Amino acid sequence: MTQLSRLFLLLLLPTLLLAEAPGKNAIATAHPLATAAGQQTLAAGGNAFDAAVTVSAVLAVVEPYSSGIGGGGFWLLHRKDGHEVVVDGRETAPARAHRDMYLDQHGEPIPNLSMDGPLAAGIPGEPAALAHIAGRYGKLPLSQSLAPAIHLARNGFSVTPHYQKMAGWRLEALNVSPAAAAIFLLHGEVPPLGHTIRQPQLASTLELLAQRGHDGFYRGKIAHMLVEAVQQAGGIWTMEDLAGYQVVERPPLKGHYGDYTITSVPPPSSGGIALIQMLQMLERLDYAAAEPPQRSHLLVEVMRRAYRDRAHYLGDSDYVEVPVDHLTSPEYVTRLAAGIDPELATPSTLLPGYGSPVGGNDTTHFSILDREGNYVAATLSINYPFGSGFVAGISGVLLNDEMDDFSVKPGVPNAYGLVGAEANAIAPGKRMLSSMSPSFVSGPGGTAILGTPGGSRIITMVLQGMLEYFDGKEVESWVSRPRIHHQYLPDILYFEAAALSEPLLTALHGRGHILSEAASSWGNMQAVHWDERTGRVTAASDPRGEGRASVR
Ligand code: DON
Question: Is there a contact between 138 and 57 (Cβ–Cβ < 8 Å)?
Fold first, then answer.
């Protein structure tokens, strides 16, 4: 290198580096208090990973119906040096769990047993994930990142219309647990708007986690409290279950759509595989060039096929053989796409192999980009609104009911109408199959960071968010686009009222699709867009929810 070119490089270097950093912080979460707390952590010198810890913990406090330290989730991280990882903080089945634990003596599922009360709860992963992310990727001590959540747990937050809706839905389950009713209800009823929910016991539990890290939750005082309360109420957790919990770092799953790279979550989530399959089928079917009725038809047909594979093949890959490479291979996806009739719906019963799903906006997602170019997409859950409805004694921890995400019995639909097979059967220590799909897309239009709650509908929502992005739409459109959903079984095309016009409905009906307009909207997508070409950073929070996006 000549002296002149070296000098040129030296002068150019700062601008090159600048182009690689957004210079702005962007956060989109499902609750204004979580967005504000995340910005506070960034302003205090934290990076996107510290902010992710803060936001997760604040959401655990102010959205108790969505996620919590009694639950788990997947945190997809991108470090500015290009390192990417999935922090899998999914719950695990306790050691005393077994495949038929929710069946009666006739082999039939016992109603609600996998949904309500401590028997429905997997071993939580979120506390371990937060300690792990702070320790390995953050710049701030865990105690600093958790401080806003501790403050909010102690001082309280206000009941919103959404809180009321969720509490109303789970009123019965919450009233079964005296500790839950005392915290989340008022005299056994849904609290009035503006009522302050204080959680001093949860604040103390979070403090122990802040001081002692992982072991503060999984060993010692808190662990004892959790196990005792769970066992007293008929649950099966042991101290060994808690002491044995570990997060798993997994390489993210990668796929392509045109010039774009998709980065998402591998098993035990079904999201990454399904997204890659659907996008690759759409590419082969030339979706981008198709017109409206054809577009909707193709969307439904690729959804149907990806969800068929989900039901058939997917489970925790640490326990069962999941043919990830085969399912996402060009040859296999080409074959799947070739089976799609361009004119007619394929009845799901005609696909090889094999209730009405719900998908609201419990569970939660957030997206964060920091000014240096680190970013996070995370989807966290306690499954049903307010999880199992069970608070474990004076720990203040509301437990998940994620065990229902296992296939309780082959072919029997879960709360989201999803069916599963052997791959997702219950086994001690195993992680239940998830649909959570925190994702990144990178390519000519910049970087997209997105995800949403919504049970079985998560994956099709993320797909439709990505398609908006590929169509060049603004981030607001990704999160607000009216949605459709098909999940193989039941063989029904669900749609939000604004998603399909009358002529479209007629056209789809004519092609043999069975249509059902949803009574209410679904999802709560949170997204950030960083366009590296222009340096523009934007963020949006789904208008269906109560969240907030902020760029600073
Ligand atoms: O992991 C899963 O797929 C589910 N437990 C997520 C639940 C959910 O999104 C609930 N929201 N409606």
Answer: no
Q: Is 88 exposed, middle or buried (0-12, 13-18, 19+ CB in 10 A)?
A: buried
The total number of structural domains in the chain stands at 1
Query: Is the CB of 67 within 6 Å of ligand 1?
Result: no
Residue 402 alpha carbon to ligand 1 centre in Å:
8
pTM: 0.95
Tell me whether the omega of the peptide bond preceding residue 268 falls within 30 degrees of 0, making it cis: yes
Residue 170 lies in a domain: no
- Hey, whose CA ends up nearest to atom 10 of ligand 1? 455
Residue 285 lies in a domain: yes
Q: Is the peptide bond before 385 cis (omega within 30 degrees of 0)?
A: no
Q: Quick one: residue 485, left, alpha or beta (phi over 0 = left, psi -120 to 50 = alpha)?
A: beta
Residue with the two structure tokens 């934007």? 538
The token pair at 264 is 């998402």
**How far is residue 494 from each of residues 51, 293, 452, 516, measured CA to CA in Å?**
36, 15, 18, 5
pLDDT per residue as tens digits for the range 272-322: 999 999 999 999 999 999 999 999 999 999 999 999 999 999 999 999 999
The ranges of the chain with pLDDT < 70 are 1-19, 353-361
In a domain, 340, yes or no: yes
**CA separation for the pair 545, 530 (Å, rounded):** 23
* Ligand 1 pocket member 72 (CB < 6 A): no
Residues in the chain: 552
Does ligand 1 have an atom closer than 6 angstroms to the CB of 436?
Answer: yes
Instruction: Tell the residue number behind the tokens 């662990």, with chain if given.
Output: 223
Q: Does residue 362 have its Cβ closer than 6 Å to ligand 1?
A: yes
Ligand 1 contact, 360 CB (< 6 A): yes
363 is catalytic: yes
Q: What's the Rg (C-alpha) of the chain? A: 23
Q: How many CB atoms neighbour CB 180 within 10 A?
A: 24
Task: Determine the Cα–Cα distance for residues 157 and 25; give it in Å rounded to an integer.
Answer: 25
Dihedral sign of CA atoms 284, 287, 290, 296 in order: positive
pLDDT of 6: 52
**Candidate from 383, 384, 419 with most ligand 1 atoms within 8 A of CB, to mutate:** 383
Residue 84 contacts residue 78 (beta carbons within 8 Å): yes
115 in any annotated domain: no
Helix boundaries (H) for 20-74: 32-43, 48-62
* Domain boundaries, position 511: 253-360+436-545
∠ at Cα 455 (450, 458), nearest 5°? 30
| Tens digits of residue pLDDT in 44-92 | 999 999 999 999 999 999 999 999 999 999 999 999 999 999 999 999 9
CB atoms within 10 A of CB 341: 11
User: What CATH number does the domain containing 517 carry?
Assistant: 3.60.20.40
pLDDT for position 11: 47
Q: Reduced to 3 states, what is the DSSP secondary structure of residue 446?
A: strand
Q: What pLDDT is attached to residue 3?
A: 57
Nearest CA to ligand 1 atom 5: 383
Tokens 């934290």 appear where? Answer: 46
